[in-house]
Amino acid sequence: MPTDFDSLSDAQLINENLLSEWLDQPTATLQKWRVTGKGPKYVKFKNRSVRYQVGTIRRWLDEQTVAHTAEANVKKIIRNLN
C-alpha cells in the first residue's frame, strides 16, 4: 500500500526506502546524493542507519522547483559556485 506522504508530519523521520518511493528515485540515487551533497539533508545514527526528516524533504523539494529552464540554469550555476 503506497504511503500518503501528505499525511506525514514535518518532524517525522523516514528511511531511504520511503523517500525512494516518494521521489520515484532508486535508493542508489539517494545514496549517491548523500555522497555528493546534492540531495536533501539527512540524519545518520551511530548504528549507521540513515533517516530523512519530512519537513527537510519538503523544503528541499521547494528549492528544486523551477518555473522555466532559464531559472533552472541559474540555480545550477549558483549551486556550482557554492
How would the blueprint of this fold be written?
Blueprint: E1 13-14, H1 16-23, H2 27-36, E2 43-44, E3 50-53, H3 54-64, H4 69-81
Antiparallel strand pairs: 1-3, 2-3
Structure description:
The model has no long low-confidence stretch (mean pLDDT 88). Helices cover 51% and strands 10% of the residues. The protein has 82 residues and is mainly alpha-helical. It has one domain (5-81): Multidrug-efflux Transporter Regulator, Chain: A, Domain 2, CATH 1.10.1660. Strands 1-3-2 form a 3-stranded antiparallel sheet. The longest helix has 13 residues, at 69-81. The protein has 4 helices and 3 strands; from the N terminus they run E-H-H-E-E-H-H.
